[in-house]
Design a protein that fits this description.
The protein is globular. α1 runs antiparallel to α4, α6 runs antiparallel to α7 and α7 runs parallel beside α11. It starts with a helix and ends in an 11-residue tail after the last strand. It is built from 19 helices and 2 strands. A two-stranded antiparallel ribbon has the order 1-2. It has 494 residues and is mainly α. A hairpin with a 7-residue loop joins β1 and β2.
Length: 494
C-alpha cells in the first residue's frame, strides 16, 4: 500500500471518529463532523490518482479509491439534511466512513491478507448500515439475507487466501501468479464466489432486492460503490489460471443479467426497478470480467456508480415526475422515425468498430450490448413527438457519442487494466447471452402463455412468496393460502 493510500484510509478512519464527537446546537445532524475528514480523504485520493497516472502504476485502484471516497462524501452531504432528526443519523456517518475505509484498504492493498481483511471490514460495516433502517420486517429481512450471502462470500475469499498463502509461502499479491493445478482452481473458485456474492448475483441474488427497504443514503452507497468491488477483486486475482473461477463468474453473471434485466422491465415501483437494474449491471460486469475485459468492466463500474448514485439520491422526486409524465397528453409516435433512429446508431457503431480496429479485441463482443442499448435510445428519439429537425440532431448527437465510446473510451479502457488474463470464456458465450436477453425483452412486451410465464417469473424474481400453501385439515385435499408473516407481504419472512 502506497503512502497516499495509507493516508486516505487514515483520513477515513478519522472521519468515523469525528462522527462520534458531540455537536452543539440543533441545526446540524449528529455526526456531520465526519464531513471535514471525509473531504480531506477525497483530496488525498485525488492526489493518489494523479500520482498513479504519472507513474503509470495501478491507475484502476487509485481511480476506484477516489470513486469510493468522493461518493461517500457526496452521500454524507446529502444525508446531513436527509437524516436530520433520524435516531440512527450519527451511526450512518460512522458506518459509512468505516465502510469506505475498509473498501479503500482492500483496493489499495498489495498483500492478500490485508485485502481480505479490508473486504470483510467493509462487509460488516455495510451490514450494520442496513440495520440503521429501523426494526421493521423489511429491514430485518434485508439484514438477514445480506449477512448470510455476504459472509458466505467472505468465507470463500478467506479460504482462497489461506490456500494461496500455504501454497506459495507468501501473502504478497504478486505471488498468486505462481499458483498452478488444484490450488489455482480452489483460489479462483473462492475469489469468484466472493465477487459473485458481493455483486448480488446467482446464487446469492436474493439479498440485494431485499435492501429496497434501506434509507436513500444507504441505498446510494450500496448500489453506487459497495456491490461494484467484485470487478477489482477479480482483476487482482486474474493471473491465477483457474477455469473454474472464470466459469463461475460467467454463468452467475449471465443468469443474473438475464433475470434481473427482465425483472426490471416489469417492476412497477421506483426502487424496485433501480435495485434490479443494479443487479443486471453487476451481471454484465461479471460477464465482462469472465471475458478478460477488465478495463471495460471498470469503466462500466465507474459510470454505473455515478449514474446510480444520482438516481437513488433523486428517487424522492421520481413519483412526482412519473405523475407529470402520465398526466401529459400522449402524442403519436413515428414508426419510420424509430426505425431510422435505431438504424443510424447501429450503423455508426459498426462503422466506428471497423475503422477503429477494435473488432479483434477480446472484449469486442461486448459492443453488441452497447450498440443494442444505443439503438433503443435512438428508436425512442427518432419516433418521438419532436420536430423532424430536432429528432435528426438528437440522433446525430447520440451516434457521435457511440462513435466516441467505441474509438476513445473502449480503447482507453485498456490502460486501466493492462493485464494478460490466465483464463477466459469464449466470446460466443457472450453472444448467446445477448440473444437470450433480447428474446426475453421482447417477450415482456407480448401476450400469450409463454409471455405470461416470463412476466410472472420476472415479477417474482428474488422475492419471498406472498403466500404459502397450507392444508386446512388432514381429511381435506383442497389447499388454501395464508400469509407467511404479519409483516409486509413482499418482504415477509421465510
Amino acid at each position: 500500500m502506497s503512502l497516499l493510500a495509507a493516508l486516505t484510509t487514515a483520513a477515513l478512519l478519522a472521519a468515523a471518529v469525528a462522527s462520534r464527537l458531540p455537536v452543539s446546537g440543533g441545526r446540524r445532524s449528529p455526526g456531520f463532523l465526519a464531513i471535514g475528514p471525509m473531504t480531506a480523504a477525497a483530496v488525498i485520493a485525488l492526489a493518489s490518482l494523479v500520482s498513479a497516472g504519472i507513474a503509470q502504476r495501478d491507475i484502476a485502484g487509485a481511480a476506484l479509491v477516489l470513486l469510493v471516497t468522493a461518493l461517500t462524501l457526496v452521500v454524507q452531504l446529502y444525508a446531513e439534511r436527509n437524516l436530520r432528526g433520524d435516531p440512527h443519523g450519527r451511526d450512518f456517518f460512522t458506518l459509512s466512513a468505516l465502510a469506505a475505509a475498509g473498501s479503500s484498504a482492500s483496493i489499495a492493498a498489495d498483500d492478500i491478507v490485508l485485502l481480505a481483511a479490508g473486504w470483510t471490514f467493509a462487509t460488516l460495516s455495510m451490514i450494520a448500515l442496513l440495520r440503521t433502517g429501523g426494526q421493521g420486517a423489511q429491514t430485518r429481512l434485508a439484514v438477514r439475507r445480506a449477512a448470510a450471502a455476504l459472509l458466505v462470500g467472505d468465507a470463500a475469499l478467506w479460504v482462497a487466501v489461506a490456500v494461496a498463502v500455504v501454497t506459495t509461502g507468501s501473502s504478497a499479491l504478486s505471488a498468486v501468479s505462481g499458483l498452478r493445478d488444484k490450488p489455482a482452481l480452489a483460489v479462483g473458485a473462492g475469489v469468484a464466489l466472493a465477487a459473485v456474492a458481493r455483486a448480488g448475483s446467482v446464487p446469492f441474488h436474493r439479498w440485494l432486492p431485499a435492501t429496497a427497504a434501506a434509507t436513500t443514503p444507504v441505498s446510494a452507497l450500496l448500489h453506487a460503490g459497495f456491490v461494484n468491488a467484485g470487478a477489482l477483486l477479480l482483476l487482482r486475482f486474474s493471473p491465477v489460471p483457474s477455469i473454474a473461477g472464470v466459469w463461475i463468474v460467467a454463468v452467475a453473471g449471465s443468469m443474473t443479467l438475464l433475470a434481473a434485466s427482465t425483472a426490471m422491465l416489469v417492476r412497477p415501483d421506483v426502487k424496485g426497478r433501480l435495485v434490479h437494474s443494479t443487479a443486471a449491471q453487476m451481471g454484465f460486469m461479471l460477464l465482462a470480467c469472465s471475458l478478460g475485459a477488465f478495463g471495460v468492466a471498470l469503466v462500466h463500474v465507474i459510470g454505473h456508480a455515478l449514474f446510480k448514485a444520482s438516481l437513488f439520491l433523486g428517487a424522492g422526486s421520481a413519483v412526482e415526475r412519473a405523475v407529470m409524465t402520465r398526466s401529459a397528453p400522449r402524442e403519436a409516435r413515428s414508426r419510420v422515425g424509430a426505425w431510422a433512429g435505431a438504424s443510424v446508431v447501429v450503423l455508426a457503431a459498426a462503422a466506428a468498430a471497423a475503422v477503429g480496429g477494435v473488432l479483434t479485441h477480446s472484449a469486442a463482443v461486448l459492443l453488441i450490448f452497447v450498440a443494442a442499448t444505443a439503438a433503443v435510445a435512438g428508436a425512442r428519439i427518432g419516433g418521438g413527438p419532436a420536430s423532424v429537425m430536432a429528432r435528426a440532431l438528437l440522433v446525430a448527437g447520440l451516434a457521435a457519442l457511440v462513435i466516441g465510446y467505441v474509438l476513445i473510451v473502449f480503447r482507453a479502457a485498456e490502460s486501466l487494466a493492462p493485464v494478460v488474463v490466465a483464463s477466459a470464456v469464449p466470446p460466443l458465450f457472450a453472444v448467446a447471452v445477448f440473444l437470450c436477453s433480447g428474446a426475453l425483452s421482447l417477450l415482456t412486451r407480448r401476450s400469450g402463455a409463454v409471455a405470461d410465464r416470463v412476466f410472472a417469473f420476472a415479477f417474482a424474481w428474488a422475492r419471498p412468496p406472498l403466500m404459502s400453501p397450507v392444508p386446512r385439515a388432514r381429511t381435506v385435499r383442497v389447499r388454501t393460502l395464508r400469509p407467511t408473516s404479519t409483516g409486509p407481504f413482499e418482504y415477509g419472512s421465510l
